[in-house]
Write a structure and sequence with these properties.
Layout (H helix, E strand, L loop, with lengths): L6 E5 L3 H11 L5 E5 L2 H11 L3 E5 L7 H10 L8 E5 L4 H10 L3 E4 L4 H34 L7
Parallel strand pairs: 1-2, 1-3, 3-4, 4-5
Helix pairs in contact: 2-3, 3-4
């Protein structure tokens, strides 16, 4: 996926945690912004429209669970991939993250290679879904205009 500058939002109230994630992404082509709490995360998402969010669960003012639920309930943000990053590692926490709408879940301590593999996999999946949606829209427009789509 080289050549594209994907935007990644790191939402973590712990400055050291955010700095570590930024350091892991430093040698990539990703554009990175950080948010320190849930409300700031939603504000940056609405202004910056990131391609992926690394979301800490335990944050002040609004938990990562609540942020994810709000993202999923908004038509403009519901398809942004979310990886929840947390020190919580109980099965109930993973289930709650899935119920909130997360796409993936990484427990701390985070391994750089694992993080980059998961980010790239989700970005590729989103890119493919966007391509498919554009193709279907194009074919629908052709069909409505009476032009036959290419032979199958």
């Amino acid at each position: 996926m080289s050549g594209n500058q994907f935007k990644i939002l790191i939402a973590d109230d712990n400055p050291q945690g955010a700095e570590l994630l930024e350091a892991y992404l430093a040698d990539t082509d990703f554009l990175v912004k950080t948010a320190g709490d849930g409300e700031q995360t939603l504000k940056i998402v609405s202004e910056w429209n990131p391609d992926l969010i690394l979301l800490d669960i335990m944050m002040p003012r609004m938990s990562g669970f609540e942020v994810c639920k709000r993202l999923r309930s908004n038509a403009e943000t519901k398809t942004i991939p979310v990886i929840m990053v947390t020190a919580l590692d109980q099965l109930a926490d993973v289930e709650r993250a899935v119920d909130a709408g997360t796409d993936d879940f990484i427990s701390k301590p985070i391994k750089q290679n694992e993080l980059l593999l998961r980010i790239n996999a989700l970005l590729k999946a989103r890119h493919s879904a966007n391509d498919l949606a554009r193709t279907l829209t194009y074919l629908e427009a052709l069909q409505q205009s009476g032009i036959q789509s290419p032979a199958r």
